[in-house]
Design goal:
two-stranded antiparallel ribbon, 9 strands
């Protein structure tokens, strides 16, 4: 396998079970290789926000053809919404599924991802939360080929299910700036965010039942997506998500000791 030039990193994928400890490892990559974090969660929030800001107050069911199991033509959607802005229409399509509590189909997720990634020139990103399915992996590699870009490597953060459950039920999130804390390893300041001062919260889906459901989802969908990338020549770097002594320096060393083997 050809060596990678550390000064010419184009894109990196970071994956792992939900709650494995991806964010501190992403922070290391962002700082070391001068990258940006491109999070699927932020992508969805961005496009949903654009649609909500548009102010459409009609029901979304009319955009869905139940018989054909697909959306009506885009020109009809644009006429009803009063705009042909692609971002707003993508936001509407995502919101249709989110509001119904349904899994957003790969073709919608791929379209959202592509649109957002394009704004970054398809370069210098840490892909967080994407790809999560086999179809998304296929789409990503096709997109990289088409845009003359590459994925240099995948960073897989490994952790046991039991440690993830313990870690996640103690996770706290800042609702204002998105900063992530842990009551034991990275505690907030008396229940408040150290960055903006807002009161931190526990995510509604950070219960043991929902955590274990997400762990099963990772095994069924995300692992095959990872294996597809590896089979197609993308190096996979495995790093521990649990450290006996959790410090920023130990996290950095645990990541870079493995990544540097590619150089």
């Amino acid at each position: 396998m050809p060596k990678i030039n550390p000064d010419e990193i184009t894109n990196v994928v970071v994956t792992g079970k939900s709650g494995a400890g991806k964010q501190p490892r992403i922070d290391v990559l962002v700082e070391r290789f001068n990258l940006e974090q491109l999070s699927t969660g932020n992508i969805f929030r961005s496009y949903l926000g654009k649609f909500n800001a548009h102010g459409y107050d009609g029901k979304l069911d009319g955009f869905w053809n139940e018989k054909e199991q697909q959306f009506i033509p885009d020109d009809e959607i644009a006429e009803e919404l009063g705009t042909d802005d692609d971002d707003i229409m993508l936001g509407m399509k995502a919101k249709y599924f989110v509001d119904k509590g349904l899994f957003v189909p790969d073709y919608i997720t791929n379209a959202l991802f592509d649109s957002y990634f394009a704004k970054k020139g398809y370069r210098k990103q840490v892909l967080d939360g994407y790809p999560r399915t086999m179809q998304q992996s296929k789409f990503l590699l096709g997109l990289m080929d088409k845009k003359n870009s590459i994925i240099d490597f995948v960073l897989l953060v490994e952790n046991s299910d039991d440690k993830i459950v313990e870690r996640t039920i103690n996770r706290r999130i800042c609702p204002e700036c998105g900063a992530v804390y842990h009551l034991k390893y990275k505690p907030p300041d008396n229940g408040h965010c150290k960055k903006c001062g807002a009161k931190v919260i526990q995510r509604s889906d950070d219960t043991e039942e929902k955590i274990r459901s997400r762990l099963e989802e990772f095994k069924k969908k995300a692992l095959p997506a990872l294996e597809y990338l590896e089979i197609h020549g993308i190096p996979v770097v495995r790093v521990p998500g649990h450290l006996e002594e959790f410090t920023p320096e130990n996290v950095r060393k645990s990541v870079m000791n493995e990544v540097e083997k590619l150089f």
